[in-house]
């Protein structure tokens, strides 16, 4: 009985001593897997629990697009998980490909929602994707197309100086602060200042302004009124013009005040009409001048006879 108690005491002290003393020599198996917290390890080191470390270094070889580092739920082939880091080193020379580093974030539906690519001697690209995998935003630099930001969806929106979720159909919104453009601006369709209505009746206008416009010069391309000087042009007798004015309250071929107030003033058209009246007035003056000269000639002739 004393021998059994003595052996038990020695065994207990040996175990306790081994638990509290550091191992002098570490040994590792030459084959198989090591498990901590599990009796069935599925990797070279399989830890069931938390790992605490000051520094961590992960090394690997590029092989069949497998990630160097994968974290999260297993999603697809090649060990792809919700977080993956890839690296193709400079030593990889197949097909003359550049080395690159990249990481991606995927959701539980195995859809790549975020990816960053850094390709040596080439470009950097950041891509955000929708839940269906379609591209939402792409930012790229160093490509043959230059640096760019792509937002391919028609409902994409950039908001500066606030939030813009209440502006459907507007792609660029500046909620506060001035916008300064120091180069040319090309607008493919229409531009509105103070309004988003570009129609006047059925007519679509390229520039629509609700408010006053100030400019040092306005140039309008339109047809002109030189047809008045054509021999085929019918110049109304002044008597007919007088009758028209008394009846309608405005000159022939000139819009009335009521029409202008209701429909607005077409600057190019009204300039042509005004030029038409100036040229007609010139013709009237020429005719009157001829009549005046003839009258003077007749008066002088009669004076000589007297």
What's the quick description here?
With 306 residues, this protein is of the alpha+beta class.
List keywords for this structure.
seven-stranded antiparallel beta sheet, two-stranded parallel ribbon, 306 residues, 15 strands, 23% strand, rod-shaped, 25% helix, single chain, alpha+beta
Secondary structure layout plus pairing:
Layout: H1 2-20, E1 34-36, E2 45-47, E3 69-74, E4 81-88, E5 100-106, E6 112-119, E7 124-129, E8 135-143, E9 146-150, E10 158-160, E11 172-174, E12 191-193, E13 199-200, E14 203-204, E15 207-209, H2 238-248, H3 257-263, H4 267-305
Parallel strand pairs: 1-2, 10-11, 12-15
Antiparallel strand pairs: 3-4, 4-5, 5-6, 6-7, 7-8, 8-9, 13-14
Verbal overview:
With 306 residues, the chain is an alpha+beta fold. The protein contains four helices and 15 strands. The protein has helices at residues 2-20, 238-248, 257-263, 267-305; strands at residues 34-36, 45-47, 69-74, 81-88, 100-106, 112-119, 124-129, 135-143, 146-150, 158-160, 172-174, 191-193, 199-200, 203-204, 207-209. The strands form five sheets. It has a seven-stranded antiparallel beta sheet, with no helix packed on it.
């Amino acid at each position: 009985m004393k021998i059994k108690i003595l052996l038990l005491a020695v065994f207990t002290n040996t175990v306790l001593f081994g638990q509290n003393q550091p191992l002098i020599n570490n040994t590792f198996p030459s084959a198989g897997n090591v498990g901590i917290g599990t009796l069935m390890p599925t990797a070279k080191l399989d830890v069931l629990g938390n790992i605490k470390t000051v520094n961590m270094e992960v090394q690997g070889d590029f092989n069949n697009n497998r990630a160097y580092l994968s974290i999260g739920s297993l999603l697809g082939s090649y060990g792809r998980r919700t977080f993956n880091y890839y690296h193709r080193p400079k030593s990889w020379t197949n097909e003359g490909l550049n080395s690159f580093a990249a990481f991606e974030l995927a959701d539980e539906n195995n859809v790549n929602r975020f990816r960053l690519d850094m390709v040596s001697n080439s470009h950097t690209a950041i891509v955000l994707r929708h839940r269906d995998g379609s591209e939402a935003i792409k930012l790229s630099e160093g490509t043959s197309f230059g640096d760019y930001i792509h937002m391919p969806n028609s409902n994409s929106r950039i908001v500066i100086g606030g939030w813009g979720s209440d502006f459907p159909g507007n792609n660029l919104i500046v909620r506060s602060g001035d916008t300064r453009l120091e180069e040319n601006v090309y607008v493919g369709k229409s531009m509105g200042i103070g309004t988003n209505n570009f129609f006047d009746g059925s007519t679509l206008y390229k520039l629509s302004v609700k408010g006053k416009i100030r400019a040092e010069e306005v140039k309008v391309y339109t047809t002109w009124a030189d047809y008045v000087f054509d021999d085929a042009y019918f110049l109304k007798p002044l008597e007919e013009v007088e009758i028209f004015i008394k009846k309608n309250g405005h000159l022939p071929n000139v819009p009335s005040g009521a029409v202008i107030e209701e429909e607005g003033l077409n600057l190019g058209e009204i300039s042509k009409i005004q030029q038409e009246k100036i040229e007609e007035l010139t013709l009237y003056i020429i005719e009157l001048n001829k009549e005046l000269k003839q009258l003077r000639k007749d008066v002088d002739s009669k004076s000589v006879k007297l």
